[in-house]
Amino acid sequence: MASYPQIDLYIDGRWKRADGQPVINPADESVLGTVSAATRADLDDALAAAEKGFALWRKTAPAKRAQIILKAASLIRERVDEMAVAMTLEQGKPIEQAKLEILRGCDIIEWDATEGLRLYGRVIPSEPGMRHTVLRQPIGPVAAFSPWNFPMSSPARKVAGALSSGCSIILKASEETPAGAVQLVRAFHDAGLPAGVLNLVFGNPAEISEYLIPQSRIRLITFTGSIPVGKHLAEMAGRHMKPAIMELGGHAPVIVCDDVDPATTAATSVTGKSRNAGQVCVAPTRFFVQESIYEPFVNSFAERASQLRIGDGLDPSNQMGPLANSRRIDAMETMVADAKSKGARVLSGGHRIGNRGYFFPLTVLADVPDDARAMYEEPFGPLALVNPVKTVDEAIEKANSLPYGLAAYAFTRSARNADMLADGVEAGNLSINHFVASAAETPFGGVKDSGYGREGGTEGLQCYTVVKNVSHKTA
Ligand code: NAD
Q: Does residue 60 register a pLDDT over 80?
């Protein structure tokens, strides 16, 4: 069997083995290993380590910090093949997508490391004898919670943001896909990161968040995951007056205008929708297509969707792997049955493939009524919901009709349409004529129930800082 790493805790620069739950391979439901679970004493050790690590790291020269962070990224680049195998084993995504995720994680780490050198303050012009200097200082130890769908790049965003701004961090990564975080942390350890600056724990997510968030030593919470859990953690953070970065769910609309080629746009949509088997917070989901190209678009979409090669992600010829866990299979089956019962047409897929491994095909549903569950609940899986619209205005209205506002997409050749969409769509990220919702250098995050705060770009790093105005009377 391809190798899967040992999943230990990492506290104060040392690895620690403990008992815990099994990690399952979603392609065949075999057990890959066991995740070490942190005890209360381990969390106390991590808090003490993060406090000590912050005292040291904030006083480390930014250039030295960047050197260590960049070294970690270069070690990850060297280890990409081995890391990708572990990721495919635990999460299911095709091996090429696993490699791309890891390399994208490196891009993020590298961009943040160098941007950390430019966390400038400013001097405000003031009366003679008075100087107002605005400083941007690292906020302090961070408690970070990362999800199972991007086992490496999601923790990488949080670790890179914290470390590049001079903060220390306790990362609670996913117990279901823990190897990405272990390998990320190992690279920082091998790059010479001082003990205590970065700590990794696993265990019972609710117990860990409820213990860490109220601690006075923790100064910032960052969470990526579902809206209900995000609201719960944000409430806890609010009770203890902690700022938070909440990167929550989405239900991305895709507005397809009648000035584009339906077949080409459908082909791009299959690639966008099948990425990570649709288990992506920015996955394109609700397609609103102008009437004159609706039929050719939806037929081409379904035809190409049914041609996707689906199977174990370790086989490089497969284009879509299994879903990451059985909860997603249950959700897909329930949503498809509900949509069918309300009158939707199933144009491709619709049923689980086999009964070993969590395989579900890319399913294209057409003419889906607004009251079908999938139209208002995030599918977080390979479901594409396609409906006709008369005008771009109508499409924008439908796009904005849900409480989500993370990513949105549009396809048009018209500058006028693009302008209307940029003005009118309620989302943190709008991509026109492509399906990439974020890059290392761009701010990524939501509006409405999709959360607040940003990851990536200058705005992302600034979330890890506090502003202090120093008002100095010099005369
Ligand atoms: P879930 O709501 O049970 O968990 C979502 C994530 O939060 C998981 O990583 C889980 O470990 C963590 N979590 C749960 N309770 C927690 C707590 N009290 N404290 C700290 N962390 C906690 O759902 P799930 O079945 O794991 O995932 C399905 C849903 O989660 C999807 O519908 C999707 O909306 C959402 N999700 C979103 C993202 C994202 O990128 N925004 C990633 C993964 C999952």
A: yes
- Domain 9-248+448-472 CATH assignment equals 3.40.605.10: yes
At residue 32, the pLDDT reads: 98
Residue with the smallest CA separation from ligand 1 atom 25 is 327
Which spans in 196-325 are helix H? 205-212, 227-239, 262-274, 291-306
Kindly tell me if the per-residue pLDDT of 1 is higher than 70: no
Judged by DSSP in three states, 450 sits in helix
Note the pTM of the prediction, 2 decimals. 0.98
Tens-place pLDDT, residues 375-401: 999 999 999 999 999 999 999 999 999
Question: Measuring from each residue's beta carbon to the nearest atom of ligand 1, which residues come in under 6 Å?
Answer: 145, 147-149, 174, 205-206, 209, 224-226, 228-229, 232-233, 247-249, 281, 327, 378, 380
C-alpha to C-alpha distances, 201 to 16, 138, 163, 270, nearest whole angstrom: 10, 22, 17, 37
Counting ligand 1 atoms within 8 A of each CB, the residue from 93, 212, 226 with the most, and so the one to mutate, is 226
Question: Matching CATH topology for 9-248+448-472 and 252-432?
Answer: no
91, 172, 229, 330: residue to mutate for ligand 1 pocket, most atoms within 8 A of CB: 229
d(CA 421, CA 454): 21
Residue nearest (by alpha carbon) to ligand 1 atom 6: 225
Residue type, 217: R
pLDDT band at 2 (very low <50, low <70, confident <90, very high): low
Least Cα distance to 395 among 376, 421, 372 occurs for: 421
Encoding tokens for residue 366?
């057409």
Ligand 1 centroid to Cα of residue 105, in Å, is 20
Instruction: With beta carbons less than 8 A apart as the criterion, state whether 402 and 376 touch.
Output: yes
pLDDT above 60 (res 113): yes
**Residue whose CA lies nearest to ligand 1 atom number 32:** 380
Range 293-309 average pLDDT: 98
- How high is the pLDDT of residue 475? 84
Please state the domain extents for the chain.
Answer: 9-248+448-472, 252-432
Distance 147 CA to ligand 1 centre (A): 6
Residue 288 Cα to ligand 1 midpoint, Å, equals: 27
If you average pLDDT over every residue of the chain, what do you get?
98
Instruction: Please tell me the class of the 252-432 domain.
Output: alpha beta
Give 149 Cα–ligand 1 centroid separation in angstroms.
9
Distance 279 CA to ligand 1 centre (A): 11
Active-site residues, by number, are 247, 281
Beta strands at 465-473 and 130-138: parallel, antiparallel or unpaired: antiparallel
| Residue 197 burial (C-beta neighbours within 10 Å; 0-12, 13-18, 19+) | buried
